[in-house]
Amino acid sequence: MASIPSQSMMLRIEDMGVTYPRNVLALRPTTVDFHRGEFTVLLGLSGAGKSTLLRSLNHLVLPTAGSVISAEFGPLNSRRTVRQHRSRTAMVFQHHQLIERHTALQNVLTGRLAYHNTLRSLLPFPRQDLELALHCLERVGLADKALTRVDQLSGGQQQRVGIARALAQQPSMILADEPVASLDPATSEKVLGLLRDICREDGITTVISLHQLEYAQRFADRIIGLANAQIVFDAAPEELQPHHLNEIYHGGSNSTPMPGKAPAAKTQPVMPQPTQLEIAR
Ligand SMILES: Nc1ncnc2c1ncn2[C@@H]1O[C@H](COP(=O)(O)OP(=O)(O)OP(=O)(O)O)[C@@H](O)[C@H]1O
């Protein structure tokens, strides 16, 4: 039976694993707690399992083993609990998933849809929703772009609309899947800083997948390093040592134990390609 999460815990994955069709092992059975207000970065090479772990947290990817347990709603073992959990879990995507021919405000308002039934969502949004959406745009510095079509905004501005839409959902958790992968370094820093500051201010638990070590060290409260479908590091950024990076980015041939955990059992370590090594710098 699933154990009960403690007070500060927001979400627990318990012996959760994902194997895709054709026996592709993307995440070995793993147990991890995510705490209230924590800003966690999932770090690893392409194919390490970051997106799989991130998306399984709200069952966008369905775990094939173990369970996801919400402190608020319990184990995600029914359509009802999954729906409840998703209504409080906002997503930010790499390509923002905005409706380009709609205005920034209209896009942010879609963050409110989870709070209305299908029939209600066909009607104009209530005034409170409009005010909230405007407030969210203000928080990401885009109040003056509320009525601008999204396809007339820059990539960084579009991602800020994506964050405002997530905030309009009034989430207790935000899952961000490589939210800066399409942005230049200066814009990436601005977007990540904004997301981190707002989540900190509002106490929103955030899990975000990134390739860039530098950003993970700069913005994360906690880094979870993945390699070969398993967690090989899980601690504060200050604890990340060269041998951990070796584990994350090189398959860890001469690894030492990760903080708080026994050394991970490895099968068939996959060595990164030279292009992949670039991202470790
Ligand atoms: N829908 C799918 N069907 C089959 N295999 C998949 C699917 N999605 C991912 N995989 C495989 O699962 C493994 C983990 O992929 P995942 O996308 O989680 O890695 P990632 O660390 O997020 O990579 P990236 O940084 O490139 O997004 C990879 O081997 C990938 O090819």
UniProtKB/TrEMBL annotation:
<feature type="region of interest" description="Disordered">
    <location>
        <begin position="248"/>
        <end position="281"/>
    </location>
</feature>
<dbReference type="InterPro" id="IPR017871">
    <property type="entry name" value="ABC_transporter-like_CS"/>
</dbReference>
<keyword id="KW-1003">Cell membrane</keyword>
<feature type="domain" description="ABC transporter">
    <location>
        <begin position="11"/>
        <end position="253"/>
    </location>
</feature>
<dbReference type="InterPro" id="IPR050086">
    <property type="entry name" value="MetN_ABC_transporter-like"/>
</dbReference>
<dbReference type="InterPro" id="IPR027417">
    <property type="entry name" value="P-loop_NTPase"/>
</dbReference>
<dbReference type="InterPro" id="IPR003439">
    <property type="entry name" value="ABC_transporter-like_ATP-bd"/>
</dbReference>
<keyword id="KW-0813">Transport</keyword>
<dbReference type="GO" id="GO:0005524">
    <property type="term" value="F:ATP binding"/>
</dbReference>
<protein>
    <submittedName>
        <fullName>Phosphonate ABC transporter ATP-binding protein</fullName>
    </submittedName>
</protein>
<dbReference type="Pfam" id="PF00005">
    <property type="entry name" value="ABC_tran"/>
</dbReference>
<keyword id="KW-0472">Membrane</keyword>
<dbReference type="InterPro" id="IPR003593">
    <property type="entry name" value="AAA+_ATPase"/>
</dbReference>
<keyword id="KW-1278">Translocase</keyword>
<keyword id="KW-0997">Cell inner membrane</keyword>
<dbReference type="InterPro" id="IPR012693">
    <property type="entry name" value="ABC_transpr_PhnC"/>
</dbReference>
<keyword id="KW-0547">Nucleotide-binding</keyword>
<keyword id="KW-0067">ATP-binding</keyword>
